[in-house]
Amino acid sequence: MTEERTPLVEMRNVSISFGGIHAVDDASVDLFPGEVVALLGHNGAGKSTLIKILSGAYKRDNGDILINGDFADIHNPRDAKKYGIETIYQTLAVADNVDAAANLYLGRELRTPWGTLDDVAMEAKAREVMGRLNPNFQRFKEPVKALSGGQRQSVAIARAILFDARILIMDEPTAALGPQETAQVGELILQLKKEGIGIFLISHDIHDVFDLADRVFVMKNGRVVGHARTQDVTKDEVLGMIILGKCPPGAVPGPGAMQTA
Amino acid sequence: MADQSLATPAPAARASNVSALKRFFQATEIDTRLLGMVIALGIIWIGFDVLSNGLFLTSRNLWNLSVQAASVSVMATGMVLVIVTRNIDLSVGSILGFVGMIMAVLQARILPPIIGFEHPLMWVIALSAGIAVGTAIGAFHGAIIAFLGVPAFIVTLGGLLVWRGAAWMVTSGATVAPMDTTYRLMGGGADGSIGVTASWIVGIVACVLIVLSILNTRKQRRRFGFPLRPLWAEYFLVAFGCAAILGAVWVANSYYMPVNLAKKYAETHGIAWPEGGLQIGLGIAIPVLIAIGIAMFMAFITNRTRFGRYVFAIGGNPEAAELAGIKVKWVTVKMFALMGALCAVAAAISTARLNAATNAQGTLDELYTIAAAVIGGTSLAGGVGTIAGAMLGAVVMQSLNSGMVLLGLDTPLQSIVIGIVLVVAVWLDTVYRARAK
Predict the structure, then answer these.
(1) Distance in angstroms (rounded) separating the CA atoms of residues A161 and A143
(2) pTM of the model
(3) pLDDT at residue B408 greater than cutoff 50
(4) Is the reported ipTM for this assembly greater than 0.85?
(5) Which of A203, B74, B142, B293 is deepest in the core (most CB within 10 A)?
(6) How far is A98 from chain B (nearest CA, A)?
(7) Which of B81, B226, B311, B317 should be substituted to probe chain A, the one whose Cβ sees the most A Cβ atoms within 10 Å?
């Protein structure tokens, strides 16, 4: 079984609370190289919060994060990036008023030998990466504000792969997209997977991610209901986990599973 | 029938005209917003010239206008960055007053007993000390804003009161004068101008720089095989830029020394006083050169450095900037420190020009500075603004001021006009932006 290998990411017994509310309570998840893991749950189940701890946006109260089996020190987004963790946020965290190249390199700009920004080199690289992702994309000189939702999404994804992410977190990656763009993102995920990148997909809609994912983790009220390989469970069973917290026979129950019989 | 057949080509012709204009702007990559401001400024200038019977568009008035706009435009370049990050700085006028006082006291009271009056390094010490104090004050404001989370409006409103009071306390309200002779050059005047020959040299160097920068851009774009601007567009930009620069130099050089000063100059240089009087062109004033230098420096910072990129990214989406790993708090501190340093430069220009420092110096300058930045197209919603726009905005404000003075309008009426212009300018900008979407 896969458990023999060292996971790329392992979050052990992680908890965080905001003003007395346990947003994430004793949650453990893991992710292996080249694996797509879907993190499912209702709005407010704690999946986004859990993943923001991994990406450094929130500080955990308890628990450990292990990257390749070593304890990782993640206190802010910069730390997370050092471990190769890249995040594509639900809100499409791009700076609206600057162009695609500037967004791709935000925080890690290419510079000339004089220490000034090398805009031309950044634009060239941006054209290359965007050409791979979305060959129709031509609007490099315009502020990102002028782009469509799908184009903004491809900028956000390009940003992540540009820096050789090993762990990619995608928070509702297709929520803002049309069907064709959703299919594009799906293809892209499979391509990244082939390259050995571990991917966390976060969604509240099982249909978005079930076919893409190798395993699912289900969260409810801040706790992990359980996890399962997608080949061992049906969509309906996973829905039961999401809605009722009921663990089917093919899944490994977690601390949030409904206590029955 | 005949009418109809004649009328039909008209719309088509107009359409091709419009697209030609559009193509022109696309090819030259001229910012139409900035162009609109230049045109507005032109209208203001011609309007005042007509109303004042040709008093406005004289080299004398334009030269004075450029000197008067220098102090506010220096601060406006910094205010652009502050406003772009969705902050505001209400304390710049008071910082100017306080730092001006510090520099004046240093060179008029503290340093002379130590290094002697008119020491050649006096102005260097005074200016460096002023910039250090200004930077420290700005960084202090920035630290409170970034690390303690107090809104910039409140911190700098407090700063407005604190530093104005502090300026008074330095000398218990007494005016400090006179300034060091070399220091005074920063304020302009007949001495504080670089003369005809040097002005032409500066103009020509600027033209050469334009050509070099265009060549460099072409080289860079060719390096990666990007589309180049058409050659005619490049020639046009070079010709237009050089004409504007050399025209400005010509205007500055056509402002001659007033008769009294020219006589004194003739005496000291042993020139016989000719019949028709001596015509010595003043050339570009040093404060104007300082302001232009600062503007180039600030434009470089905003467009070519990480710091500038971060400032704009923070203004566009603070959350995204933070998530991208930008140290938003440090950028905020650095930006306010830079604003403080610019206040110190403005204070030097202002005190040197007045040849004195008063505790009321720079009062209301914060509002002129903010107005200049906003008229120049800086959006208070954050994320948008240019240095060139702010400089133009400062010139527009100063043009209105001195134009109304020339027309002999009462001060209260001047305030009313400027207030209305500010609101109308921002409204027009809002309309323009809504259309541009």
Answers:
(1) 21
(2) 0.85
(3) yes
(4) no
(5) B74
(6) 7
(7) B317
